[in-house]
Amino acid sequence: MIRYPRLVVRVACFWALAGIAQSPPPPLLPPASNFSFPAKQTLNYAVDWRVFPAGQATFHLEQVGNVEHVIATGESIGAVNLLFRVNDRFESYFDRTTGCSSSFAKQLQEGRRQVTSTLRFMDRKQVLQEKNLVSGTSKSQEAVIPPCVTDLMSAIFYGGSQPLQPGASFHMPVADAMRVVDVTMKAEAREQVVTLAGTFQTIRVQPIADAGVVKNRGNIWIWYTDDERHMPVQMRARLFWGTITMRLVSTSSK
Fold this sequence. Notes:
It is a single chain. This protein is 9% helix and 55% strand. The chain contains four helices and 14 strands. Strands 8-7-6-5-4-3-2-1-14-13-12-11-10-9 form a 14-stranded antiparallel sheet. The protein has helices spanning 8-12, 78-83, 154-159, 213-217; strands at residues 40-49, 52-64, 67-76, 87-95, 101-110, 113-122, 125-132, 138-144, 169-176, 179-195, 198-208, 219-225, 232-239, 242-252. The chain has one domain. The termini are far apart.
């Protein structure tokens, strides 16, 4: 049986696979002064596994005061849904002026697995509360983190807040599940990307880390529009078990 991976975590939250940082990561840079996060935006994606339609994913962003609220959902469809059902929801909050995350929550339903968790960032600590809905067990953990980090979901959009020029790169300290990963975002080249939402001129960016499974088992990229929006229109994970691609289908300001 094909164990189809999480539609959002395995692709959109690619940096979670990067591994544990071996030294303190560089500080998180604030968003570029000429960049503005959307006040309200919904991005819908089609997800393909190899050559098969496998799922759909949605990101909704909304400004709440000086905070950006991001909600993402991912679910399997078609034959993949019969083999391994996925129905996930993720939610994060980050400061629009600094990029610093305040919380990241997820509700996972993947096959027989059902888990809910909340990760909060405060006072240089990340605090995890997690519950297994199948076994009924719970756990709580704390770990020290730098004063400003991004989380798995916010990092996608924080990445777009930085200047993106081919050949340049920047660092992100990404906190997840009691670890902090130093991820280098390398802007590789300009490319034209065609999706159901239209044809876009983009900049292809690859996240790179010095440790973890991605280093030895595959590569992951994200394509941001080459304009002031830096909107993610395509994401791809090429791993040992196959390739997953997310392509933008539609957008709205609702």
